[in-house]
Write a sequence for this structure.
């Protein structure tokens, strides 16, 4: 992701569903000096729109339990915890698209 010529971060996503119909988003990373300026939210909103256009129905993302920035962002976008207990150290969240 770029702001003009400056790389502000990157996002990694699977453009195909796994055997359970899940489209995983393995990584979202905003450069430290660009954090807290709305880039993470903007990137996620654009990715959700893109995956909707690809007829994805189940978007999955994980984050460390102590990562309040990531958890708050994903929760506000509608990603619900799949379980309260971390799996392999991560809280897994699902955004179900109707
Ligand atoms: C987590 C991360 C992707 C958020 O991106 P960002 O561009 O900094 O976040 P934004 O400015 O778009 O903020 C979006 C929301 O995140 C949350 N947030 C951001 N910084 C926060 C902080 N320091 N503490 C708590 N919540 C925070 C808020 O809910 C904010 O909501 P708002 O838009 O209503 O204010 C970014 O900080 C990052 O890359 N961190 C390091 C790597 C990482 O943790 N990646 C995610 C793990 S999967």
């Amino acid at each position: 992701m770029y702001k003009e010529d400056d790389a502000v971060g990157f996002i990694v996503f699977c453009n195909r569903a796994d055997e359970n119909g899940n489209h995983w988003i393995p990584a979202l990373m905003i450069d430290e000096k660009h954090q807290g300026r709305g880039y993470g939210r903007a990137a996620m909103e654009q990715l959700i729109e893109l995956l909707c256009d690809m007829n994805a129905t189940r978007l999955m993302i994980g984050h460390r339990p102590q990562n309040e920035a990531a958890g708050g962002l994903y929760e506000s976008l509608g990603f619900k915890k799949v379980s309260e207990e971390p799996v392999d150290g991560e809280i897994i969240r699902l955004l179900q698209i109707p």
Q: What stands out?
A: The mean pLDDT is 96. The longest strand covers residues 58-63. The domain at 2-96 is CATH 3.40.630.30 (Aminopeptidase). Helices lie at 39-53, 68-76.
